[in-house]
Each structure stands twice: as structure tokens, then as C-alpha cells.
Amino acid sequence: QVRLVESGGGLVQAGGSLRLSCAASGSIFSINHMGWYRQAPGKQRELVATITSGGTTNYADSVKGRFTISRGNAKNTVYLQMNSLKPEDTAVYYCNAVTIADRYWGQGTQVTVSS
Q1: Is 106 within 8 Å of 20 (Cβ atoms)?
Q2: What are the beta bridge partners of residue 6?
Q3: Phi first, then psi: what are they for 55, rounded to 5°?
Q4: Tens of pLDDT along 50-96?
Q5: What is the model's pLDDT at position 3?
Q6: Contacts for 74 with CB less than 8 Å, ≥ 6 apart
Q7: 3 state DSSP class of 28
Q8: Contact of 73 with 55, CB cutoff 8 Å
């Protein structure tokens, strides 16, 4: 089992920045890769960015050049640095961890970007 706890969401004006954090606990040795997804009201959950245990990253086209995903030294923490935020980035952001056997989600953190 893996438990994920997100933090760092909030309200920011367009053009501003936020940094999300996700701390994993439990069977962290079994995690293959971690990532961030988001879900806006009335829309499906979508991928934002992922990072493998080897450090390979992948981004949605809509956030490339603005968001950066990274992992902490202890490998059980993942960050999402979000710059040049836009109103369309408003959503609940979820941390995700994938193992061979399962996929885990955090409780989500709200990000609201005002115009």
C-alpha cells in the first residue's frame, strides 16, 4: 500500500506561480513512477506530468514550458512547480503513484487561478 498526501494548492492571480508537493509513505520501494493529474469542474481527469524512478519526465502539451515536475532526494516526494499560471489551469490536482500491482491517488489539492 502507498499513501499520498498533497500540499501547496491555493489561489493565485494569472501569471503567478505555485509549487505543489506530494509525500508518499508505505511501500514506496514498489513505486515505478509518480505524477500529477488534474480535474476541472465538468471535465475528465487529465495527465499533467509524470516522472519515472530514473528521472524521465513527460508533460501534457498544455503545460510544457510552464510546469516542472521533480522528485526529492529521498525519492518519496514529488513536486510540481507551476509558473505562468493561467485561469484554465484551475482544477483539483491529484498526485499519482504507480506500482507493478496498483495505482494510488492522493486526496487532491485545489488550485484556483484568477484572471
Answers
A1: no
A2: 22
A3: 100, 5
A4: 999 889 999 999 999 999 999 987 778 999 999 999 999 999 999 99
A5: 96
A6: none
A7: helix
A8: no
